[in-house]
Amino acid sequence: MVYLKAQTIHMHSITNRRLFIIAISLITVITTKAQKDLPGDYLSKEFHRSRREAARKLMPDNSVMFVFAAPTRTFSNDINYFYHQNPDLFYFTGYKEPNSVLLIFKEDQPALDGSQFNELFFIQKRNALAEQWTGRRLGVEGVKEKLGFTHVYNNDAFKEFPLDLSKFKTVIFGSLPEGLTDETNEKADLYDLVAQFRQKIQLPDNYSNSLYKDLGIFYGRASMPNMDRTINAFKTKMASTPVYKDNELVNAIVNIKDEKDLDRVKQQIADARNNTFLFDQITGALREIKTPEELSLIRKAVEISCLGQNEVMKTVRPDMSELEIQGLHEYIHKRYGAEEVGYGSIIGAGENGCILHYMENTKTRVGNDLLLMDVGAEYHGYSADVTRTVPVDGKFSPEEKAIYTLVYDAQEAAFKLLKDGAKWADASVAAKDVIANGLVKLGIIKNKEEVSKYYPHGLSHHIGLDVHDKGISQTLKKGMVITIEPGIYIPSDSPCDKKWWGISVRIEDDALIKENGYELLSSFAPRSIEGIEKMIAENSVLDNYKTPALKSAAKKSF
Question: So what family is this one in (predicted)?
Answer without folding.
Answer: Belongs to the peptidase M24B family.
